[in-house]
Amino acid sequence: MRIAEISSPELRRINRDVEAPHRLLSQIEVTVKQLESHSADKPPPGTVAADLRQCLTQLGQLAPFSNSLKLQIWKLSYRLWNACVDISNTTSIRCSSVTVAADENQAELRHITADLLSIAGEVAGVPSPAIKSLSFYYKTGLIWHNLQKFDLANKCFERATDLVSKLDIASISDAGERKLLLDLNLARSRTAWEARDQNLAVALLNRSKSLLFGSCEHYKELAKQFMAFGKSSLSKCSEDSNRDLSEALKLMNEALENCEKGFGVARTREDKVEIRGLRWKVLRFIAAIHLQKEEFESVIKCVKVLRDSADGGDDHPSLSVLAMKAWLGLGRHVEAERELRGMVIDRGIPEGVWVSAVEAYYAAAGTAGAETAKGVFLGLLGRCHISAGAAVRVAHRVIGGGGEGARVRAKVVAELVSDERVLALFAGKEAAKDKVAMHSVLWNCGADNFQSKDYETSAELFEKSMLYISYDTENRVLRAKGFRVLCLCHLGLLQLDRAQEYINEAEKLEPNIVCAFLKFKIYLQKNDHQGATSQIEAMTTCLDFQPDFLSLSAHEAVACHALPVAVASLSSMLNFYASGKSMSTAEVTVLRTLLTVLSQEQGNEQQVLKFLKHAHTRATELGPDYFFGKEEVGRRERNWFAVTSWNFGTKTGQDKNFELSVEFLRLASDFYALVEGSDNENNVMVCKSLTLSASSMIALEFQRKTALSETEVKQAVHLLDRAGQMLKSISAGNSVNDDQINTIEPDLFFIYTFCAYDIQGRLNDLGSQLLSVRSFASSKACKPQYLLQIGLSASQGPRSNHEVATFALNECLSSFLSSPVPDYQNVALVVRKLIAIASIHKGDKDDDFVYGMYKQAYGIMVGLKEDEYPIEEGKWLAMTAWNRAAVPVRLGQIEVGKKWMTIGLDIAKHVPGMEAYKACMEDLLNSLEKKP
Residue 4 burial by CB count (10 A; 0-12/13-18/19+): exposed, middle or buried? Predict the structure, then answer.
């Protein structure tokens, strides 16, 4: 037997532990060799990084290692890093674009390289192993940061920072290693900032102060990073974000402090010049932040420091702008003007910067500084050699763009262009094109202000633009246009007399429909409705009149709440349709608009009815398809008129104006009948309109307390006959089931039945009354409440019909009792009414019928809870039944009397609160039974 075979398990485990790292390192070396032989034309396999990461994980579980293994790991790490560098360099040279996936794969391979050094740890024979390891992590973190993989970048930087914490920083003397420590901290800070962890980013910058080692370069780098964060915060600040501004200012102050310290340790002239330039830049940013925070005194201090600096100070163009805006903020216009005039003299300042300063000055100085602004503007023209073309260009540059201060700038330019010295530049024929150009600049600016409803400024600009129109026949139309637009401006300012003056001047130069229409607008603004209405007639006499102006007039009148004028305008339009004139707007549209206008005010119902009748008449004359339109458009128009008639009919009905309600509802039925391919819904609406129209006629009788005339009764009969035929038509069209429509519109069928019953009663047609009620009772639309209402109506009044009442109430009682939860209040009402009707119309001849009603009531009460049947009704039944025995007993009809007394006593036993009565009743009944 071999010695290896008889060795202990512990020895075999040790052998495996020794062999495992070598095996993993061999696998890593194979992969590294593949990468070293990699060709740029063929990307490395995508699984390389995953395979290496797996080996790395397994290797990490076997640590710690011997020094020889550590050294081997270090060598493999450097080979892998160099292979990655070669691949990256080769790819960037040969390939114009590299995919994101390839970049991420490279970054992952470098991350594995750094992790290899971290697993190996310190190794004898390698100088500064921690520095080299953190260098790998730092460079890999930069790559991840550039790829915006901030979590992975931060992970690398944190691993590198852990390595730094184990170093004796004070003992590091190498300048490159010191710079590496600072760069690591700054890179980690940048990553934290990008990851929106601003608190950590700033904390890391403050921590970097311990890594400056008194180097001017280090101070400069830290100052740049503070300034970069400050600029980033400043760019994200909104106008009212004072907190963000304060944060940006704090960062800039930190940058300034590092510049000061860096300048103090600078040794060479170049270093001092560079850090001084950085300090000036930071100070300009600080001044800008103070300006945004409206801390104007601080801005002035910053500018003064910059200008009074050694070596001549800072001469950046922005300083004059900052100073001028700060002086304006302090309300010190004299100093601001001095800065502004200094910029005019200084030709080194770009024109864009100068114009920006001028705009700011105009915005702040306002009308109080108009004269000064005008003088400065003339100074600007001096820079442009004071030519007509230059004046146009500068005016366009200053006046354009809108924004803050636009109104002030516009007013200043208006004053400027009316100056005699400027007008003299455009006097010659050679300046004709420039004259047209200046007119365009002023006209366009006036139009912009007009659109923004700054009518005062626009009027001033339009007035000044007319200075650049030649007074000749060719420009007569252009001058008339200017007067018209000035009329509009003064209309907007409600300066109506001036507006009228301008439009009169325009009409002298070019009389047309536009002038007539603007006169109409002036009358409207003056609330002169009669004058506006007269002007409508004047517009129609203009040579260039178009009917569309009447439509526009109506819209203007509605906007001014001059509804009578709008009605007059639209009514005038209707006259053109009657004459057969070709119109761009359909007649039905005009009528619809007219009705909409009339509907906006109460009390116009008569006029609404008039124009609805006019619409129906025109539809009849021209044909529905021609008047309303065809297909879907025509259907919608017909529906609109039908719905409008219906709405006014129901509204006037609700307002108790039944006379108008009758007319509107009758029209509604006519309009609904005009709808092509009328479906059940429209047919139902026709039927409802007819029925409610008849109902309004009946209600009108009660309102005026005068019976319907024979003619009116005939009209109601006609309406109801049409409604009845419609009901039958709808039912037949829907289904074989005649009651389908009744289930759809139960209220409609009830109202129709009720009205038909009323009108048939006026004609003494009692048989038809009973037939109508029976037909309704047999339909699905019938409800016990409807029958109760019919029965109560038929049982009273001058045209009562006891047969109808008895039938309706009996049917109603059956429906109530068949309900799962009967309404005993209504049951009691019906029972009492039936007893009353039978007592009146049958009398003593049919005593058994009345007695049967009491027996039925008793049967209903048996088994109910104490208070379920109305107590008062129960008492009434018991007492009236008992009292009915009085007459038979007096006449000696003892048996009949005992019958009534017995039923009265039986009912009383089921009525709470009748205990005393019951005892008395029982005694009387017993005494009666003892009699022979």
Answer: exposed
Distance CA 883, CA 854 (A): 13
Is the confidence at residue 539, as pLDDT, over 50? yes
Q: Which residues contact 39 (CB under 8 A, 6 or more apart)?
A: none
Instruction: State the amino acid at position 880 in one-letter form.
Output: T
**Residue 289 in contact with residue 323, Cβ under 8 Å?**
no
- For tokens 């925070």, name the residue: 293
User: 11: pLDDT confidence band, cut at 50, 70 and 90?
Assistant: very low
pTM above 0.85, yes or no: no
Residue 393, Cβ density class (10 Å: 0-12 exposed, 13-18 middle, ≥19 buried): middle
Respond yes or no on whether the N-terminal peptide bond of residue 64 is cis (omega within 30° of 0). yes
**pLDDT band, very low/low/confident/very high, at 745 (cuts 50, 70, 90):** low
**Burial letters for 161-182: b for 16+ Cβ neighbours within 10 Å, e otherwise?**
bebbeeeeeeebeeeebbbbbb
CB atoms within 10 A of CB 800: 16
- How many whole angstroms separate alpha carbon 757 and alpha carbon 716? 12
pLDDT at 425: 79
- For residue 208, give the DSSP letter: G
Q: Which residue has the higher pLDDT, 197 or 794?
A: 197
For residue 51 the two structure tokens come to 């395979």
Instruction: For 500-531, give one letter per residue: b (16+ CB within 10 A) or e.
Output: bebbebbbebbeebbbbbbbbbbbbbeebbeb
How far apart CA 336 and CA 324 sit, in angstroms, is: 4
d(CA 95, CA 313): 49
> d(Cα 558, Cα 572) in Å, to the nearest integer?
16
pLDDT in tens, 814-845: 888 888 888 888 888 988 888 888 888 765 55
| Res 721: pLDDT | 85
pLDDT tens track for 471-487: 887 888 999 999 999 99
Distances in Å between the alpha carbon of 763 and those of 636, 705, 767, 849? 41, 19, 11, 31
Q: How many helices (H) and strands (E) does the chain have?
A: 45, 0
Q: What is the dihedral of CA 832, 835, 838, 844, to 10 degrees?
A: -150
- Find all residues with CB under 8 Å of 444, minimum gap 6, and list them: none
794, 802 in Cβ contact below 8 A? yes
Mean pLDDT across the chain: 81
Residue ranges of alpha helices (H) inside 308-454 are 318-329, 333-345, 351-365, 370-383, 388-399, 406-417, 420-424, 432-451
How far is 444 from 458, CA to CA, in rounded Å?
9
- pLDDT-derived band at 170, boundaries 50, 70, 90: low
Complete DSSP assignment for 688-706: HHHHHHHHHHHHHHHHHT-
Residue 74, Cβ density class (10 Å: 0-12 exposed, 13-18 middle, ≥19 buried): buried
Which pLDDT tens digit goes with each residue over 112-149?
888 888 887 777 777 778 888 888 888 989 999 998 98
* Amino acid at residue number 204: L
Residue keyed to tokens 């009967």: 822
pLDDT classification of 312: cutoffs 50, 70, 90: low
Q: Which residue has the tokens 């259907």?
A: 635
pLDDT digits (tens, 9 = 90+) for 86-119: 888 887 666 655 577 778 888 888 888 888 888 8
What is residue 724's predicted lDDT score, i.e. its pLDDT?
Answer: 83
Q: At a CB cut-off of 8 Å and minimum separation 6, what does 260 contact?
A: 279
CA 237 → CA 170, 231, 249, 287, 900, distances in Å? 40, 10, 12, 16, 99
pLDDT at residue 497 is higher than 90: yes
Sign of CA dihedral 113, 118, 120, 123: positive
